[in-house]
Write a structure and sequence with these properties.
72% helix, mainly alpha, 5 helices, 127 residues
């Protein structure tokens, strides 16, 4: 019985060590297939700007504030990639079978979660 416990503990430690070691080798994981932080920021900037275009500033005031905050957050990070972000968003949102509104809805959430969890940003509109 003691040998079985010792074996299980050894297997658990080996699995934890493997997962820990593989975690360092894994890529950072960018949103929507972006290959660099600036491209990811450009995509998120394009998402916030596109939703603002659709609502024309007449959406729910809290949503409009949040979109403005996202634009302000992502614009400096996009650097020279805002155009590439717009192209990637257009490709993704007009793909066959994709509902643009649903895609934008999910993308704006993904981008906000990325800003909060990866960059540690706090959106005032969340409070």
């Amino acid at each position: 019985m003691k040998a079985i416990r010792l074996g299980l503990v050894a297997v658990a430690v080996a699995l934890l060590a493997t997962v820990w070691w593989q975690g360092f080798a894994a890529p950072a994981g960018m949103l929507y297939g972006a290959t660099a932080e600036a491209a990811e920021a450009g995509y998120c900037l394009a998402v916030a700007e596109r939703i603002s275009e659709i609502t024309g500033g007449w959406g729910d005031p809290r949503l409009e504030r949040h979109l403005d905050e996202q634009v302000d957050f992502w614009r400096p990070r996009a650097g020279t990639a805002p155009g590439a972000g717009r192209v990637a968003l257009a490709r993704d949102s007009t793909a066959p079978g994709v509902n643009e509104g649903a895609h934008l809805h999910l993308a704006v959430q993904d981008c906000a979660l990325r800003a909060v969890s990866f960059y540690g940003h706090r959106f005032a509109s969340f409070e």
